[in-house]
Amino acid sequence: MPSPLVTLTTDYGAGSGYPAQLKGVLLSTLPDLRIVDLSHGVPAYDLLAGALLLEAVVPTFPGHAVHLAVVDPGVGTSRRGLCVQDPCGRLLVGPDNGLFTPFLGPGARAFELADPRLVPAPRLATFHGRDVFAPVAAALAGGLDPALLGPAVADPVLLDWPVAERGAGQVRGVTLAVDPFGNLVTSIREADLAGAEVRLALCDGRAARWVRTFGAGSPASSWRWWGAGGASRWPSGRAAPPATCTAGGAWRCGCSWAPPGRLAPPGAPARVWTIRWGPRTKTSARPPACTTRSPWPTSPWAPS
Question: Whole-model pTM above 0.70?
Fold first, then answer.
């Protein structure tokens, strides 16, 4: 039997003591537990950034892992605590605020953290990560049936998920995030083209050529490639700071407008991307929700 494993994803900040308190509770409950930090650098209260990070990273872990995630602007209010079991059987624990949207597709189950025999009352109104979610995550890692935690939830909160717009011979998307390498990650996924041959890519009306690597692009030009990674969308009127996004199972189209090794400046505009294609040369389908394919990018496109 594999040893119990819990991952942690929060917006607490890597330099704070809050993640250590979660680990203390987890280890006090289950001393032989393995703990892996996915990230504590999710932008504060940014639910979509957290959801997309989880979407990218969670599928790379063993199926028995329990994923504790806390990005919780509604902590202490009437928002529910939630345990999600996705169609692959993976377990996630945290607030019911949309953070687990990528895992709530057909076949998923969700349970409210409600049974007082298994769900502790919080000691502090604003630290449910330590007082509620960590003890529940440890119990699940130890083999607790999630259905025992409370009633099934038929209406978990879902985020407005970013998708590309598909039209006649083209697909349109927007910039979602800037990563530490200066890349802009867009809402266009490889599957949106359904195997069509790309003839032209535009960024706000300017042409962008396809490349496979950073080195194949010119620092002074706009260039584009297929890759894998998390993404983040920023609310209207709010600056978009650089965000760390880990490679994962959702295939997206990225672009770069800064030389490799330099950060794109905060406040980057949400540029509109358009991809036009010719006759289809092959067909492809989006990988199933429970995929074991490698998350690392393999580009089908040669430099133009």
Answer: yes
Q: What's the rounded Cα separation, in Å, for the pair 197 and 289?
A: 25
- Which domains does the chain show, CATH number per domain? 5-148 (3.40.50.10790), 165-280 (2.40.30)
Q: How far apart are CA 168 and CA 166, in angstroms?
A: 7
pLDDT tens for 51-102 read 989 998 999 999 999 999 999 999 999 999 999 999 999 999 999 999 999 9
